[in-house]
């Protein structure tokens, strides 16, 4: 399979929720076609963040976007239907969050979404030998908070993950992605780059989008 074109997925966790629609339109106008939605349950990770209502609200904007839902929740199989109904395109669950990973991946596909599996920085990659996923998400920070520094050993893990899943499958990186770290992640084999604070925390999110897209090797930043 041919390698995928790199894409940037702005994470709305870092957006101004009082102006969410305007903030999303700004990055879509800059070129984004994937919006990353971080869901936290206060158990798998300490904070709470947002639920399916936010996906429905984003869908109501009627933009040409994919919704990339990252579930940082325990027992995600109990929640995937709600996110599919709310308009998710892809649903990614954590390998550490359920003993029923194969079942949950099947369920996501039956709901009409693509299925991703994420691993925390300390989780071995062996799980990807046992599962057929549409997307593999390599956390490049510990999940739960935006604004953390990219873990320096991440490119080595990304490289090993790419070798394991082969070309033609989405390899997403999440955490500490900016114009400096996107390049090494791309060089190691990442194709989908989540960026939160580097985008929405910037004075000019569109300019920041273009800088990260250029660093990631996007053909049309
Ligand atoms: C962290 C979330 C990330 C977060 C990234 O647990 O999964 O998606 O929004 O934020 P930045 O880009 O600020 O590291
Ligand atoms: Zn995320």
Keywords:
221 residues; alpha/beta; TIM Barrel; 8-stranded parallel beta sheet; globular; binds D-xylitol-5-phosphate; binds zinc ion
Distance between the termini: 24 Å
What is the subunit arrangement here? single chain
Sheet with the most strands: spatial strand order: 1-8-7-6-5-4-3-2
Query: How many DSSP E strands?
Result: 8
Classify the fold: give the CATH topology. TIM Barrel
- Low-confidence parts: none
Ions and ligands? D-xylitol-5-phosphate, zinc ion
User: Quick one: CATH superfamily?
Assistant: Aldolase class I
Largest sheet: 8 strands, parallel
What is the succession of H and E elements?
Answer: EHEHEHEHEHEHEHEHH
Number of domains: 1
- Write down the CATH class: Alpha Beta
Q: C-alpha Rg, in Å?
A: 16 Å
Proportion in β-strands: 15-25%
Provide an overview of this structure.
With 221 residues, this protein is α/β, with parallel strands linked by helices. The protein has one domain: Aldolase class I (TIM Barrel), CATH 3.20.20. It has 9 helices and 8 strands. The protein has helices at 20-30, 52-59, 80-85, 101-110, 127-130, 154-165, 182-188, 197-200, 205-216; strands spanning 7-10, 34-40, 66-72, 90-94, 114-119, 135-139, 170-174, 192-195. The longest helix is centred in the last third of the chain and has 12 residues, at 154-165. The radius of gyration is 16 Å and the shape is globular. The chain binds D-xylitol-5-phosphate (DX5) and zinc ion (ZN). Zinc ion (ZN) binds at residues 11, 36, 38, 70, 174, 194. D-xylitol-5-phosphate is lined by residues 11, 13-14, 36, 38, 70, 141, 143-148, 174-177, 194-198.
């Amino acid at each position: 399979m041919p390698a995928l074109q790199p894409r940037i997925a702005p994470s709305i966790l870092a957006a101004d929720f009082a102006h969410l629609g305007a903030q999303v339109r700004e990055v879509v106008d800059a070129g984004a076609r994937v919006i990353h939605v971080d869901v936290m349950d206060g158990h798998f990770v300490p904070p709470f963040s947002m639920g399916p209502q936010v996906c429905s609200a984003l869908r109501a904007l009627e933009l040409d976007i994919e919704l990339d839902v990252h579930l940082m929740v325990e027992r995600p199989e109990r929640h995937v239907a709600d996110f599919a109904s709310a308009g998710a395109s892809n649903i990614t669950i954590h390998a550490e969050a359920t003993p029923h990973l194969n079942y949950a991946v099947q369920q996501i596909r039956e709901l009409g979404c693509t299925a991703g599996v994420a691993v925390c920085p300390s989780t071995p990659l062996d799980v990807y030998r046992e599962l057929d996923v549409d997307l593999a998400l390599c956390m490049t920070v510990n999940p739960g908070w935006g604004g953390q520094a990219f873990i320096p050993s991440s490119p080595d893990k990304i490289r090993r993950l790419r070798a394991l899943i082969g070309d033609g499958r989405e390899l997403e990186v999440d955490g500490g992605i900016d114009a400096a770290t996107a390049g090494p992640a791309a060089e190691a084999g990442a194709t989908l780059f989540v960026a939160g604070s580097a985008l929405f925390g910037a004075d000019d999110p569109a300019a920041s989008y273009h800088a990260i897209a250029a660093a990631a090797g996007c053909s049309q930043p």
